[in-house]
Design brief:
3 domains; globular; 479 residues; 4-stranded antiparallel beta sheet; 4-stranded parallel beta sheet
Length: 479
Amino acid sequence: MKIYNTYSNSVEEFKTIEPGKVTMYVCGPTVYDYPHLGHARCYITWDMVYRYLKYKGYDVKYCRNITDVDDKILKKAREENSTAEIISRRYYDIFADSMKKLNVLKPDIEPFATKTLGEMISIIKDLIKNGYAYEIDGDVYFRVKKFSDYGMLSKQSIDDLMSGARVETSDKKEDLLDFALWKKDEEFGYPSPWSKGRPGWHIECSAMSRKHLGRTIDIHAGGADLIFPHHENEIAQSECANGCKFVNYWLHNGFVTINKEKMSKSLKNFVTIGDLLADYDANTIRLFILTNHYRMPVEFSPEALEGARSGWKRIQNAVNEAVKYLRGAELPDVSDSDEIKRFKEAMDNDFNTARALAVIFDAATKVNKAKADNDMKTAAEYTAILLELTNVMGFNIEKEKMSEEELQLKLETIIRDMDFLSAEDKLLKGNALAEKIIEYRNIARKEKNWAIADKVRTLFDSIGIVLKDSKENTYWEEK
């Protein structure tokens, strides 16, 4: 398996620190506003990587942080006459809900910056002790020029950085390039040896990564906009504090662009995930993103999303029709099939999702042909391939819902055995009739009339409908 390492600027063979195990850190959101398509691109990308590494058999420990203390959060709190805690919690909940709707798996570890302050302070103390950082008037800064490899990730020399890179400015600093590890803040701060204050952005990820994954990790990933200064600064402070290599493989996803400009909140050209999900389903959005190689920019347009919608419908329809055709037939083991091998070859080549998706579309074409040829054996094989590979890529293939007409036909075969229904009840159609029957069953359960309750369950089961009871209600779904 080979992946592109931003640090070496080359494709490298993937070798983990510990055989069979992967430590993976992804920079999470700063929760101060609604998540947008750029966030969807980032976290769907690393969700794909996480899923594939697990599919390959790796024991993956995936950590994605939440930045809940930051200048942007405090600015929003002041604007709304609120608190940083209220703002960050509100937008974290929105972010978490958006990820769930996009079928992005929760990471194994999701630390909050404010819960890792002790680790940050410990690292800063070590940096000061070893001469890599200094304190002035309650602020603490990192001495950039003391770290000889600074600029290696972003491929910038110290002279280039001095001549125009965007850096934090302060009259207090020894050098223009030095960046903040701790910021004095009497209003919103936390206690520390230097002042009541808060951590710099960069030290947060170094601390959370070290606490949960160790001093050296296999993969550190994020958007390409984080290469400098965020990831460059993480390397500097982590390696100087830990005395060892910080990350073995740096992975970065490309931007989402609109009219060739990066989508961002500062440019006010972003589309929120909530707005996007109002028009497109999660599978369509995922297909739109994964059709492009993760390192390349993705140009957002309604036309591209409509193309992805049509593509996903093609896959979904192939599966739905095949499942109907196979009528519950057992699916074969396809682990040694040529399609699975081609899929793995594509993904093992720096997660080439475009080629991997081509295998999925090819399987959809072949399952349709097998069904047309009445070749049940081949149809079962390609249906198994489709289900396995779409699952690996994080698509959520839902069974096609029963139509009202189909439900009505099924119910008509059992209502004659339900003597508790009135003549008026029996005039109800489809879902309304099903809900009325369930209502009677719930009354029977409360009255401990198990004969009726069990009879309804058995009759529903006979027509391929499962009743599921929860504390709040009972609902039905097709087997």
